[in-house]
Sequence to fold (275 residues):
Amino acid sequence: MEACTLAYQLHQEGARQYLTLPALSGYAGLRHLFTTRYGGVSSGCTASWNFGAWSLDSEANILRNYEILAETLGVAPNRLVRTDQTHTTNIRVVTEADAGKGITRPRDYSDVDGLVTDVKGIVLVTGHADCNALYFYDPVKAVIGLAHSGWRGTLNGIGAAMVETMRMQYGCNPADLVAGLGPALCQTCFEVDPDVAQRFFKKDPAYAQFAVQKGIKYHIDLKQVIRYDLLSAGVLAAQFHDMGLCTKCRKDLFFSHRGHQGKRGIMAAAMMLVE
Ligand SMILES: [Zn+2]
Fold:
């Protein structure tokens, strides 16, 4: 477990606050970040940097928040590409033709929780408010991947599916991948009923080592489940990096679906290849 580095860097630029993984920021060919609640224009329970929660915020605010994200990464908003997250393990291979989809123009795809690309200058974007963000970078092939992994996506193995997609599409060697996890629920904060826990144990009895029972409820360490799956898929332990932050424990900094009883905005994970 020692190889699982707990590390993040908090950046503050005026009102804007976002995080990066030091393990990924060392690469000149890559830009990535994970936003916090602070830095956008939304108000009320979505204050202020909200990238979703459409029923609780205005379309104009959300678009402006994406513009600020694009500015932060040094690109135009029509260079962003957004998932259509429905807790699937579906992954889209993003090409130049997808630029702006889900942000400045409609998507022509649905039910996509993972994005991969080798196109430089296109920003992959996923949304989060307790669910894990999985970052992948292959510095050898210059390929990136970004996925939304809630408990359903984790149970169904979207992490391993990302590794497999990168291998099949671009010939990536899993041992070359650098993988990162953004802020998401910790084991204490991810409490589930026995039926959910049983679904995990049924899929792989080894997951029992990442669960504890408290009364009739279970607490599952989803980050350890993801790590276990990625290592099983060939990612090296030394190249797996976790920000080590919980959205609910740190609801002062993050939107947390559980921590804010559903009245919350959505944060963005973003990643792009640069020339
Ligand atoms: Zn927590």
In short: The domain at 5-185+243-273 is CATH 3.60.140.10 (CNF1/YfiH-like putative cysteine hydrolases). Residues 1-5 have pLDDT under 50 and may be disordered. The chain is about 20% helix and 25% strand. The CA atoms of residues 130 and 239 lie 23 Å apart.
